[in-house]
Design the sequence.
């Protein structure tokens, strides 16, 4: 784990001469203090104006769906540069991840500044590891790309019976509606990690198309292997998806900066992901409402996707505030032998969330 870069005067004097010298020194000190206060005031005023200007530059831009996302996440324009950042240590994250590693967990992490692309925190970000539900992200990219190309109708109705029943997560299997349009299934897959909705979308666009899209956008360590299953047999793929934190962090940065496939596709996928209700890991430190956080009143942008399976916790996203923005990804593979093991893994994600909030706010 590494982090890129934390005369004394002797003898008696005559009372009159001493008083004269003391008065002169006091006057000079008073004048110097006045000048220092004036200079500090000028600097503070300039800093206030610069900070206000920086906040104004963040602004809001409308996405393709007509919703507002901060920082120009859905615009083709280059996002504004932010003012100089204060140094951040991420010591809490490093301590938590070191403890996990010492306990036998496999850990991979990457945090990069969203504007400069500079690495802020890196640890084994080249490893390819299972990411469970994070595999929905390349699927959503392909769905949005086909909608833009006109080969997929967002209002096309898909029957739930078109795929095998699965109950590992989501809401659709609990709903009475036997069929839903493509756009609604994308919302369910992104916001509620709905396994049935994701499988229905995958059946519609095709696994080969998703794999081709992954290659087209330049990902070599990210793969969607299979749909979601309640149980995995010997003939099934061992995991839903694989990825590296290096590629995941870069992918989310590209989505928010409108560089994935096209600005419209990036906008649509960012909008879907901004509805994600799983704020229990990194998102726990943001104090955002899990059910309504796509347009935060304090200008905090948070777009994320999580992945959960036995012994696997993964999350990737972008968080941006008034001071800075960061793309991040964290994968932890651990022995899920007890609740304590699981809680320890979750604490590492929350430590990262706290450090990220200090970085951007």
Sequence:
């Amino acid at each position: 784990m590494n982090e890129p870069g934390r005369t004394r005067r002797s003898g008696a004097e005559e009372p009159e001469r001493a008083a004269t010298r003391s008065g002169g020194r006091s006057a000079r000190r008073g004048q110097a203090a006045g000048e220092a206060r004036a200079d500090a005031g000028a600097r503070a005023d300039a800093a206030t104006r610069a900070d206000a200007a920086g906040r104004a530059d963040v602004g809001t831009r409308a996405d393709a769906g007509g919703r507002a996302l901060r920082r120009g996440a859905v615009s083709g324009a280059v996002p504004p540069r932010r003012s100089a950042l204060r140094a951040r240590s991420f010591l809490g994250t490093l301590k938590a991840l070191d403890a996990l590693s010492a306990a036998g967990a496999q850990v991979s992490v990457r945090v990069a500044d969203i504007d400069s692309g500079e690495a802020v925190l890196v640890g084994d970000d080249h490893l390819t590891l299972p990411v469970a539900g994070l595999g929905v992200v390349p699927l959503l990219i392909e769905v949005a790309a086909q909608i833009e190309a006109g080969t997929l109708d967002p209002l096309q109705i898909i029957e739930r019976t078109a795929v095998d029943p699965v109950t590992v997560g989501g809401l659709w299997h609990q709903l009475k509606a036997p069929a839903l349009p493509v756009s609604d299934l994308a919302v369910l897959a992104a916001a509620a990690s709905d396994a049935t909705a994701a499988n229905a979308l995958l059946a519609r666009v095709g696994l080969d198309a998703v794999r081709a899209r992954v290659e087209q956008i330049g990902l070599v360590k990210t793969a969607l292997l299979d749909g979601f299953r309640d149980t995995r047999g010997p003939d099934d793929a061992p995991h839903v998806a694989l990825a590296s934190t290096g590629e995941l962090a870069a992918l989310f940065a590209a989505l928010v900066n409108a560089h994935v496939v096209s600005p419209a596709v990036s906008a649509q996928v960012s909008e879907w992901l901004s509805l994600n209700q799983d704020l229990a890991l990194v998102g726990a430190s943001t104090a955002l409402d899990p059910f309504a956080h796509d347009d935060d009143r304090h200008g905090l942008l948070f777009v994320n996707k999580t992945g959960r399976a036995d012994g696997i916790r993964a999350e990737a996203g972008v968080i941006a505030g008034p001071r800075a923005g960061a793309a991040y990804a964290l994968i932890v593979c651990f022995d899920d032998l007890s609740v304590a093991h699981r809680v320890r893994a979750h604490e590492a994600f929350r430590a990262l969330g706290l450090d990220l909030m200090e970085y951007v706010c």
Summary: Residues 271 and 317 are 13 Å apart (CA to CA).
